Amino acid sequence: MRSLFIFAVFLLLATFALGEASKRLILKDGSYQSVTQYEIQGNRVHYYSSERFDWEDLPKDLVDWKATEAYEKSLKEDVAHSAAQVDKEMAEDKAEEEANTPLVAPNLRLPDGGGVYVMDYFHDTPELVELQQSTSEVHADTKGNILRAAINPLASAKQKIEVPGPHASVQVHVARPTV
Fold first, then answer.
1. What is the CATH number of the domain that holds 34?
2. By residue range, what is the domain housing residue 63?
3. What is the pLDDT of residues 95-153, one digit of tens each?
Protein backbone atom coordinates (compact mmCIF):
# COMPACT_ATOMS: atom_id res chain seq x y z
CA MET A 1 0.00 0.00 0.00
CA ARG A 2 2.82 2.36 0.87
CA SER A 3 4.62 1.63 -2.40
CA LEU A 4 1.42 2.49 -4.29
CA PHE A 5 1.24 5.83 -2.46
CA ILE A 6 4.90 6.57 -3.25
CA PHE A 7 4.31 5.68 -6.91
CA ALA A 8 1.29 8.02 -7.07
CA VAL A 9 3.30 10.88 -5.54
CA PHE A 10 6.16 10.21 -7.98
CA LEU A 11 3.74 10.21 -10.91
CA LEU A 12 2.20 13.49 -9.73
CA LEU A 13 5.61 15.13 -9.35
CA ALA A 14 6.71 13.85 -12.75
CA THR A 15 3.60 15.38 -14.32
CA PHE A 16 4.37 18.76 -12.77
CA ALA A 17 8.04 18.47 -13.72
CA LEU A 18 7.09 18.30 -17.39
CA GLY A 19 5.78 21.83 -16.99
CA GLU A 20 2.87 21.36 -19.34
CA ALA A 21 -0.18 23.03 -17.89
CA SER A 22 -3.63 21.96 -18.99
CA LYS A 23 -5.24 24.19 -21.59
CA ARG A 24 -8.73 24.22 -23.04
CA LEU A 25 -10.01 24.05 -26.55
CA ILE A 26 -13.40 25.71 -26.22
CA LEU A 27 -15.91 24.34 -28.68
CA LYS A 28 -18.71 26.22 -30.41
CA ASP A 29 -21.39 24.24 -28.56
CA GLY A 30 -20.10 25.64 -25.22
CA SER A 31 -18.23 22.56 -24.06
CA TYR A 32 -14.45 22.23 -23.98
CA GLN A 33 -11.65 19.70 -24.29
CA SER A 34 -8.86 19.75 -21.69
CA VAL A 35 -5.59 19.46 -23.59
CA THR A 36 -1.90 19.69 -22.83
CA GLN A 37 -0.86 20.74 -26.32
CA TYR A 38 -2.42 21.02 -29.75
CA GLU A 39 -1.49 21.78 -33.34
CA ILE A 40 -3.54 22.57 -36.42
CA GLN A 41 -3.06 20.05 -39.24
CA GLY A 42 -5.07 21.18 -42.27
CA ASN A 43 -8.76 21.15 -41.35
CA ARG A 44 -8.14 19.07 -38.16
CA VAL A 45 -6.85 19.94 -34.69
CA HIS A 46 -4.46 17.30 -33.37
CA TYR A 47 -4.35 17.50 -29.55
CA TYR A 48 -3.13 15.54 -26.54
CA SER A 49 -6.05 15.02 -24.14
CA SER A 50 -5.19 15.69 -20.51
CA GLU A 51 -8.21 13.61 -19.45
CA ARG A 52 -7.58 10.47 -21.53
CA PHE A 53 -3.77 10.82 -21.96
CA ASP A 54 -3.86 10.08 -25.66
CA TRP A 55 -3.60 11.96 -28.96
CA GLU A 56 -6.93 12.77 -30.58
CA ASP A 57 -8.24 14.70 -33.59
CA LEU A 58 -11.09 17.16 -33.88
CA PRO A 59 -12.48 19.10 -36.86
CA LYS A 60 -11.06 22.64 -36.84
CA ASP A 61 -14.51 24.13 -37.51
CA LEU A 62 -15.86 22.88 -34.15
CA VAL A 63 -13.40 25.00 -32.12
CA ASP A 64 -14.35 28.54 -31.07
CA TRP A 65 -10.91 30.10 -31.56
CA LYS A 66 -11.83 33.54 -30.14
CA ALA A 67 -13.14 31.99 -26.92
CA THR A 68 -10.09 29.69 -26.69
CA GLU A 69 -7.70 32.64 -27.03
CA ALA A 70 -9.72 34.70 -24.54
CA TYR A 71 -9.59 31.82 -22.05
CA GLU A 72 -5.82 31.44 -22.42
CA LYS A 73 -5.35 35.20 -22.00
CA SER A 74 -7.50 35.32 -18.86
CA LEU A 75 -5.69 32.27 -17.48
CA LYS A 76 -2.32 33.98 -17.91
CA GLU A 77 -3.60 37.16 -16.24
CA ASP A 78 -5.10 35.25 -13.29
CA VAL A 79 -1.91 33.25 -12.74
CA ALA A 80 0.17 36.43 -12.56
CA HIS A 81 -2.00 37.81 -9.75
CA SER A 82 -3.17 34.64 -8.07
CA ALA A 83 -0.64 34.51 -5.20
CA ALA A 84 -1.46 38.05 -4.08
CA GLN A 85 -5.18 37.46 -4.53
CA VAL A 86 -5.08 34.22 -2.55
CA ASP A 87 -3.17 35.85 0.32
CA LYS A 88 -5.64 38.75 0.39
CA GLU A 89 -8.66 36.40 0.36
CA MET A 90 -7.18 34.25 3.12
CA ALA A 91 -6.54 37.33 5.27
CA GLU A 92 -10.13 38.50 4.70
CA ASP A 93 -11.51 35.04 5.59
CA LYS A 94 -9.41 34.90 8.76
CA ALA A 95 -10.56 38.39 9.81
CA GLU A 96 -14.19 37.43 9.17
CA GLU A 97 -13.80 34.20 11.15
CA GLU A 98 -12.23 36.06 14.08
CA ALA A 99 -15.07 38.58 14.05
CA ASN A 100 -17.64 35.76 14.24
CA THR A 101 -16.01 33.79 17.09
CA PRO A 102 -16.16 35.03 20.69
CA LEU A 103 -13.03 35.97 22.61
CA VAL A 104 -12.78 33.83 25.79
CA ALA A 105 -9.36 35.02 26.97
CA PRO A 106 -6.68 37.35 25.63
CA ASN A 107 -5.53 35.95 22.24
CA LEU A 108 -7.86 32.94 22.62
CA ARG A 109 -11.08 32.57 20.63
CA LEU A 110 -13.74 29.89 20.76
CA PRO A 111 -13.45 27.59 17.71
CA ASP A 112 -16.07 27.99 15.01
CA GLY A 113 -16.93 24.28 14.66
CA GLY A 114 -18.94 23.94 17.85
CA GLY A 115 -18.58 21.41 20.64
CA VAL A 116 -18.04 21.49 24.41
CA TYR A 117 -14.77 23.02 25.58
CA VAL A 118 -13.15 23.54 28.96
CA MET A 119 -10.81 26.48 29.57
CA ASP A 120 -7.67 25.23 31.25
CA TYR A 121 -4.54 27.04 32.38
CA PHE A 122 -1.27 25.24 31.69
CA HIS A 123 1.88 27.11 32.81
CA ASP A 124 -0.28 30.24 33.31
CA THR A 125 -1.35 30.13 29.65
CA PRO A 126 -5.08 29.78 28.90
CA GLU A 127 -6.07 27.03 26.47
CA LEU A 128 -9.28 25.42 25.31
CA VAL A 129 -9.57 21.64 25.57
CA GLU A 130 -12.41 19.89 23.77
CA LEU A 131 -14.43 17.43 25.83
CA GLN A 132 -15.35 14.31 23.90
CA GLN A 133 -18.26 12.12 24.91
CA SER A 134 -17.02 8.81 26.25
CA THR A 135 -18.45 5.51 25.15
CA SER A 136 -19.81 3.14 27.74
CA GLU A 137 -20.61 -0.54 28.09
CA VAL A 138 -23.76 -2.02 29.59
CA HIS A 139 -23.18 -5.09 31.77
CA ALA A 140 -26.24 -7.11 32.70
CA ASP A 141 -25.79 -8.53 36.21
CA THR A 142 -27.46 -11.85 35.39
CA LYS A 143 -26.65 -13.49 38.76
CA GLY A 144 -28.42 -10.77 40.76
CA ASN A 145 -31.21 -10.33 38.19
CA ILE A 146 -32.21 -14.03 38.25
CA LEU A 147 -32.56 -13.99 42.04
CA ARG A 148 -34.47 -10.68 41.98
CA ALA A 149 -36.82 -11.96 39.24
CA ALA A 150 -37.65 -15.09 41.24
CA ILE A 151 -38.64 -13.01 44.28
CA ASN A 152 -40.43 -10.19 42.48
CA PRO A 153 -41.11 -10.88 38.76
CA LEU A 154 -42.53 -7.37 38.19
CA ALA A 155 -39.34 -5.61 39.28
CA SER A 156 -37.18 -4.29 36.48
CA ALA A 157 -33.77 -5.75 35.85
CA LYS A 158 -30.95 -3.46 36.86
CA GLN A 159 -27.91 -3.04 34.65
CA LYS A 160 -24.52 -1.53 35.31
CA ILE A 161 -23.09 1.06 32.96
CA GLU A 162 -19.30 1.25 33.00
CA VAL A 163 -17.02 3.77 31.32
CA PRO A 164 -13.80 2.01 30.26
CA GLY A 165 -10.40 3.19 31.43
CA PRO A 166 -8.87 4.00 34.79
CA HIS A 167 -9.44 7.79 34.47
CA ALA A 168 -10.99 10.46 32.30
CA SER A 169 -9.61 10.95 28.79
CA VAL A 170 -9.27 14.72 29.38
CA GLN A 171 -7.51 16.00 32.48
CA VAL A 172 -7.22 19.67 33.33
CA HIS A 173 -4.59 21.47 35.37
CA VAL A 174 -6.88 23.64 37.51
CA ALA A 175 -9.20 22.65 40.36
CA ARG A 176 -12.26 24.50 38.97
CA PRO A 177 -12.16 24.75 35.18
CA THR A 178 -14.56 26.96 33.24
CA VAL A 179 -16.86 25.15 30.81
1. 2.30.30
2. 19-83
3. 888 788 888 888 888 887 778 888 888 888 888 888 887 777 776 666 666 666 667 66
